[in-house]
Design a protein that fits this description.
It is built from 6 helices and 14 strands. With about 450 residues, the chain is α+β, with helices and mostly antiparallel strands. Helix 3 packs parallel to helix 5.
Length: about 450
């Protein structure tokens, strides 16, 4: 039956594909191969399928080549834009650092001016109290002199009346006219001296009042300048503290808890005690400037604590050379990628992103050459795939200190740094800290 079906197929194809014979000739014999219509049809069909598959595969490869070329160009453009953005962020960070340093210098100068103003204010207040005491003494002396003058005048009048009465009663036996004239002259001289003392005391009192008015004016000018300095300091401190508060909150950290830990670690006191600012004025009324100065000092202390906290928190980048992000934080190929990959030149220096202590410096499966640094607040950073490690276990590291060189050790497909941040053992996206500090440093 199959043979009969093949014969029918050959007969049907005979019109289109007549039977062909392929002769094979040798030196001693001649043979031929019969190519029946069905065999020719199968061969042609196979050839056509092969040609079509070749065309389709070539087209697919060509389209894939075009698509991959476009993707590479797009990736290069994105890389260039990202590097430009990083350069701009680096410039802004340096500018913010310079502004912060300048602000600290201005704060120091302003505090020195406040100290000088306070000293001048205290000296002026002391001078005013002395003038008030002098005016009181002069007024008391003046009242005493005027009382003595009036008493002397009254005694002189009484004496004159008595002498006149005695002269009339005694006639020629009383004192002579020369004695009376001498006595009156003495009394008149005493009265003139008393009047001169009164006039001198009056002039001194007027001069003291003028000095007191001048001192009061100077005091008001000093207080006004003092108030202007306080306003500038309050504004500057507020403007400087807001970005720092926002930076720590953006990184998921509680600023009050962080500063509390820093304050407990830097709580030493000692040295000679300096005089406190007076909390009340000379008239007993409360002194608002002392309270304002206290608030400003508290805010400056908060800024100083922030400075210490920033050094101990990984807000910095581990690389200062050119690099590009090749793999973000998150799932990759079905597995969790617990850090970010930063690709750069072989041997590029790697820096610690915060103060801490090295707890691991050596080989680790998958990571290759690995450095682990333990920081405060339960934070740990990891730096993997290094070509060279430059620190040892137990070494204290400062932010920005070089800890190794970039390489491709361990499970790695090329030169790059694998950078991790862990909080209490859990992996956190390092970009959370880096982005939080981009507008501050």
């Amino acid at each position: 039956m199959p043979r009969r079906l093949l014969n029918r197929l050959n007969a049907a194809l005979e019109r289109r594909l007549p039977e062909q014979r392929l002769f094979l000739r040798t030196d001693t014999d001649t043979r031929f191969v019969r190519l029946r219509p069905l065999t020719q049809a199968v061969a042609l069909t196979g050839t056509a399928v092969m040609v079509a598959w070749t065309i389709v595969a070539t087209a697919i490869l060509f389209m894939d080549s075009i698509g991959s070329g476009s993707a590479r160009e797009q990736a290069k453009r994105e890389q260039l834009m990202y590097e430009q953005r990083l350069d701009a962020l680096s410039g802004e960070r340096d500018q913010r650092a310079e502004e912060a340093l300048a602000a600290q210098e201005r704060f120091a100068v302003a505090l020195e001016q406040v100290s000088q103003m306070q000293s001048a204010l205290l000296a002026s207040e002391e001078r005013r109290r002395e003038l008030e005491t002098g005016i009181g003494v002069i007024q008391s002396t003046l009242r005493t002199a005027m009382t003595e003058r009036d008493s002397a005048r009254s005694d002189a009048e009484t004496l004159r009346s008595e002498m006149t009465a005695d002269a009339r009663a005694a006639g020629d036996e009383g004192p002579s006219a020369e004695d009376v004239a001498a006595t009156l002259g003495y009394v008149t001289a005493a009265l003139g001296a008393t009047a001169a003392d009164r006039d001198r005391m009056s002039r001194l009192a007027d001069s003291a009042e003028v000095d007191a008015d001048r001192a009061a004016l100077d005091l008001r000018l000093v207080e006004q300048r003092h108030d202007e300095i306080f306003n500038q300091l309050e504004q500057a401190v507020t403007v400087s503290l807001e970005p720092l508060d926002k930076m720590f909150k953006s990184a998921g950290l509680n600023p009050d808890d962080i500063l509390g830990q820093i304050r407990r670690g830097y709580s030493g006191q000692g040295g000679p005690l300096m005089p406190m600012l007076p909390s009340v004025q000379s008239d007993g009324s409360p002194d608002d400037s002392a309270e304002r100065a206290g608030r400003i000092l508290e805010q400056l202390d908060r800024m100083n604590l922030y400075r210490l906290a920033v050094e101990k928190t990984p807000f910095a980048l581990p690389l200062n050379t050119s690099f590009r992000f090749t793999s973000p934080f998150g799932r990759r190929w079905g597995r969790m990628h617990e850090g970010v990959d930063l690709a750069g030149s072989y041997g590029s220096p790697i820096y610690a992103t915060a103060d801490g202590v090295v707890v691991h410096a050596g080989w680790s499966s998958g990571y290759g050459n690995l450095v682990k640094i333990r920081h405060q607040f339960g934070i740990e950073t990891r730096y993997g795939h290094m070509s060279k490690i430059r620190v040892h276990v137990g070494q204290k590291i400062s932010r920005g200190e070089r800890i190794g060189d970039m390489g491709s050790t361990g499970r790695s497909t090329g030169t790059h740094l694998h950078y991790e941040v862990r909080v209490n053992g859990s992996a956190i996206n390092p970009m959370t800290y880096i982005k939080a500090a981009k507008d501050v440093f």
